[in-house]
Design a protein that fits this description.
The chain is α+β, with helices and mostly antiparallel strands. The chain has helices at about 45-55, 60-70, 110-160, 175-185, 215-230, 230-235, and strands at about 5, 10-15, 25-30, 35-40, 190-195, 210-215, 235-240, 245, 250-255, 265-270. The strands form 3 sheets. It has a 6-stranded antiparallel sheet with strand order 5-6-10-7-8-9. A two-stranded antiparallel ribbon has the order 1-2. Strands 3-4 form a two-stranded antiparallel ribbon.
Length: about 280
């Protein structure tokens, strides 16, 4: 490349690209397609190009480095000859990695968000309570069924007669107590019977471990003795009849309680142990 510059006298003189640079002048040297500022100012060099051209082993190190080398302006009229041209390493553009953008959550309506969370929590709590009630009901039903099956097994093992006597009026008596009611009631004319009931003082009725058979004197004598004869099989704890009590070792007189019912003259009272009896029933 060549430029025309005016000379003394206004005549134009052609200066070749090899014309030396003088002190204080600023020029642009073109070498291998790269630009370099030459002159009094500090030279500007692309860092990546500089690194590539100055690395040990680079084929461009010596020639390219010389081509890009720039000295500050000399203090005298020393001529600075331009360096020989040499091939330069290509510039490599830096790699830019894209950054994923995550939208911010919408929290402009905080009250609505809190209300929605509270509604979900209430629904979860309600469902948990419903599940708990259902589970308890299922357990209760399974227990009732197991007790019914156990009662059937005991009835079959002991040979307890089933005359169709209703025991629904006994309340929640224990299964072996219900079996004893069927056994004794069916043998003695299906008398009126009472099971669970409130009583003053110590009594087995509230706990479902006692029966009252409303009978006359003749029936009462036989029913009370039959209960004692099957004490182990029925799980009988004691029998009270006509103001006397028997734990299985004989009749003993009781104190006067003031009336026929209180003194057990109109009904036979049978109390039972907490567990079912064992052994076979004997006919009465």
């Amino acid at each position: 490349m060549a430029y025309d510059h005016p000379t003394d006298g206004g005549r134009g003189t052609h200066r070749s690209s090899n014309t030396p640079l003088r002190r204080g002048a600023t020029a642009i040297a073109v070498a291998g397609g790269a630009l370099s500022l030459v002159g009094a100012g500090v030279p500007v060099v692309v860092q990546s190009l500089h690194d590539a051209n100055t690395t040990d082993g680079s084929p461009y190190r010596s020639a390219a480095y010389n081509a890009l080398s720039v000295s500050s302006a000399p203090t005298d009229d020393t001529v600075v000859e331009p360096a020989a041209q040499a091939p330069l390493a290509p510039l490599v553009a830096p790699t830019v990695q894209p950054v994923a953008w995550t939208p911010e959550p919408d929290v402009t309506n905080g009250a609505a968000l809190v209300k929605a969370v509270q509604m979900v929590e209430q629904q979860v709590a309600a469902q948990a309570e419903a599940d708990r009630v259902a589970a308890e009901q299922a357990v209760a039903e399974q227990a009732a069924e197991a007790e019914r099956v156990a009662a059937e097994d005991v009835r079959g093992a002991t040979g307890s007669p089933d005359c169709g006597l209703s025991t629904s009026g006994l309340g929640a008596v224990k299964s072996h107590v219900r079996n004893a009611a069927e056994f004794l009631g069916c043998q003695y004319g299906e008398p009126d019977m009472h099971g669970v009931a409130g009583r003053a003082g110590t009594s087995d009725h509230p706990g479902g471990l006692a029966l009252d058979f409303m009978v006359d004197r003749s029936t009462g004598d036989r029913l009370a003795q039959c209960a004692l004869d099957n004490q182990e099989a029925l799980g009988v704890k004691y029998v009270i009849w006509e103001q006397q009590i028997n734990h299985g070792n004989g009749w003993k007189q009781m104190e006067d309680r003031g009336g026929a019912t209180a003194n057990h003259f109109d009904h036979v009272h049978v109390s039972f142990d907490s567990g079912a009896g064992s052994g076979d029933l004997s006919g009465c």
